[in-house]
């Protein structure tokens, strides 16, 4: 099929047909060749109301199509839809019990059959590659928890590096260290970009960002700028506990703590303590953001940021 946007026309170049059985086709997904085993270009995964799902390539006869072979008993179920995640890491089939009464489908409990075509090796290859793929990251998380899939040895994407090692941090000190280093890198990049974009920031907010950058950066130019500012504007004079107005004694990566033990989260971009519950948060990883930060996606996991 060819589509000409200028002429607002669709031209059929070839026609192919496959017999999906007596039932209705409820889902068709074109499969990415690199993620599929022994499949050729333009291979489709087809689901019908009844019967097995199968792979089919235009030009093949009905006898050449290949059953998917899901290890799920679907004898008494009928399908109503098939869809895939953006990068085809995960597929989902909607089914309900196949029951009929007076020629109408009864409202019986349904189920979602979630499956993947990717092997463990392919999952690891995807998450340590340069492209950030949230659906593969979620697939890795479930495989890591259920079957002990090993963490990758290297990463080309710092967001994936943070996400994957945050999953493994509960079991591995090495993963915790890698996760923290990746988070520091992402927070520093966001803070430095924010200060350059908004040169007339409030002194307290700039103080919080410069304190964080001074503590973690190795860039001599940034270090000189932060040293000069903090020499004129000490942290003790710029930041205080929002609850008791006391001095902050411990400034950690994600939290600050005052002498009375009040612990406040730090904005993921400005690094300023967020005492009043009017901040925003990431819907994926729950990272907090000041209401004044206009980011729409999280700097750590790229998830959408919502209002508190």
Can I get a quick summary?
The protein has 308 residues and is of the alpha+beta class.
Strand content: 15-25%
Major β-sheet strand ordering? 3-4-5-6
Number of helices: 7
What's the story with the biggest beta sheet?
4 strands, antiparallel
Radius of gyration based on Cα positions: 26 Å
Number of strands: 17
Secondary-structure element order, as H and E? EEEEEEEEEEEHHHHHHHEEEEEE
Percent helix, as a range, is 25-40%
Mean pLDDT: 85
Low-confidence parts: none
Protein model, in words:
By secondary structure, the chain is of the alpha+beta class. The chain has seven helices and 17 strands. It has a four-stranded antiparallel sheet, with no helix packed on it. Strands 7-8-11 form a three-stranded antiparallel sheet, with no helix packed on it. A three-stranded antiparallel sheet has the order 12-13-14, with no helix packed on it. Strand 12 and strand 13 form a beta hairpin. Helix 5 packs across helix 6. The model has no long low-confidence stretch (mean pLDDT 85).
Lay out the secondary structure:
Elements lengths: L1 E3 L4 E3 L13 E6 L13 E5 L5 E3 L9 E2 L9 E8 L6 E7 L2 E2 L2 E2 L4 E6 L4 H8 L6 H14 L10 H11 L4 H25 L5 H14 L3 H13 L2 H4 L9 E4 L3 E4 L4 E3 L14 E3 L5 E2 L15 E3 L1
Antiparallel strand pairs: 1-2, 3-4, 4-5, 5-6, 7-8, 8-11, 9-10, 12-13, 13-14, 15-16, 15-17
Helix pairs in contact: 1-2, 2-3, 3-4, 4-5, 5-6
